[in-house]
Amino acid sequence: xxxxxxxxxxxxxxxxxxxxxxxxxxxxxxxxxxxxxxxxxxxxxxxxxxxxxxxxxxxxxxxxxxxxxxxxxxxxxxxxxxxxxxxxxxxxxxxxxxxxxxxxxxxxxxxxxxxxxxxxxxxxxxxxxxxxxxxxxxxxxxxxxxxxxxxxxxxxxxxxxxxxxxxxxxxxxxxxxxx
Length: 179
Ligand code: SF4
Description:
Elements: H1 4-14, E1 18-21, H2 31-38, H3 58-65, E2 70-79, H4 86-111, E3 115-117, H5 152-159, E4 169-178
Antiparallel strand pairs: 1-2, 2-4, 3-4
The structure holds iron/sulfur cluster.
């Protein structure tokens, strides 16, 4: 069984701004959240294997998650110059992606089976193979929490994390379900 306390410490050493135990019991995989993806406000729906519908159904996600009894939540908090500091937002996003990918690889090496849930659409390849051929890097292309039907602000508050860290900050949240 994973030692969540030790992993939280490791996550902070990896470079995340915040990490805590994930309230696994509170995870709710909701079709309503998936419906927001289908509205395509982020213009990622149906464009890669890590976003809906390519990442599988909400029911499949819930079924897979039920095999795990614990997890951790990780965040990157970026300080912004103002609300329109797009460079600052992108820099924090990039930092989160890099730390998340590195930490995911580390955890996969240690635990084998786990369920990472990330942030944002996949941008690993210049052109995604979806839907004509299999994903080139299935272990790296981690679907975002919302794509699985999770309401991220609710997962944060039920796990004791802040979804929003106040004015002139941006927070990126991901999590891991662990054996
Ligand atoms: S790794 Fe490449 S092929 Fe796989 S989802 Fe991402 S962009 Fe598409």
